[in-house]
Amino acid sequence: MSDALVLVINSGSSSLKFALMDAQTGDAVISGAGECFGRDDARMSWKVDGEKTEKTLSAGSNHHQEAMDIIVGLIESNQLSDKLQAVGHRVVHGGETFSQATLIDDAVLAQIDALKALAPLHNPAHVVGIKAARKAFPSLPQVAVFDTAFHQTMPEKAYHYAISRQLYNDYGIRRYGFHGTSHYYVSREAAKWLNQAPEQTNVITVHLGNGASLCAVKDGQSVDTSMGFTPLAGLMMGTRCGDIDPSILEFLSKKGLSTDEIHHELLDKAGLLGVSELTNDCRGLVEAAEQGHKGAQLALEMFAYRVAKYIASYMVPLSRLDAIVFTGGIGENSLPVREMILKELAIFGYQADADANAAARFGAAGQITTQASPLALVIPTNEELVIAQQAMAMA
Ligand code: ADP
What's the record's note on cofactor binding (predicted)? Predict the structure, then answer.
């Protein structure tokens, strides 16, 4: 183990995930998660050297602070305090204010808080986590790593919506893009795989998890991405609708649905779940489709078709494409979905290699196309490692 440990924290409104990471090797020395914060059944679990411990949190207490106290205790009892160099926080929204990882002081914390206008569920929860961590580790540098930051290089023609400038000026309505840390990481790993400098690498990164997005990466920089003002836009996802005709909102409103009900329809009841009427879990859908479930078949077909259409459209800004890069739970593991996507791209000559496709899963990286085909790779993402490294660079 090196002397470069970073505590990576992802604080949600009712949860907190953490990992004490070696920023050089990427190994997590201790990792864990708390859930159901704010409720009587709040609890926390963690792993040290593969051994799992679970604890119920006190009813009525500040669970974020209690979780942080447990983390401090774990670091001390494992005699790791001297090695801990920094705390890295995942922050969903950095708006136009943050285009890179940033050392947190009072002013930065106030700016992250102010961005709750754009991310009302996420940023306030991050602020709670950051405050608890600053209290627990007052002498350590605390660094915010933003999901939106990588996409701040998009040109105006990619990030503006075709709506009045007034709405952009007054409310900041534009495409921000998310999953930036993942797109950044896998594009860098792809450059290594290609033996090219990142600044000379053009790839389309395809992050397919419960949330899903693509990014066109030109010369190592994001030039377009499929999520937008919020993570609801772009691809069809586990439970999210992705791109739809905005007039549907007005139509549903006139049918008597409230704004909250419409949002719930599009965010939680749509996507793979809504179309299949079965599940948002890709594995379950593949199994059901094989057994002839029509809803599951249609959901997977739509999913793959839409990913392929986005990939084709991102050839426009790239002019030269070195590789398509699949990542995320589905991208890293689902052979049939990857194969379906490549089939939809047959016009460009893409062809999956059955053996190579079968080999690249469960954390294994590699090429999944035949030698005659343009290149598609699988690269497992590692957002925690990026957060640890970027925090370490500021320590
Ligand atoms: P999140 O966006 O919540 O981080 P993940 O990246 O963990 O999501 O991806 C979750 C998705 O990955 C689910 O649809 C799940 O079915 C799928 N997935 C995970 N493992 C496999 C697997 N072995 N085969 C196929 N799909 C998988």
Answer: Mg(2+). Can also accept Mn(2+).
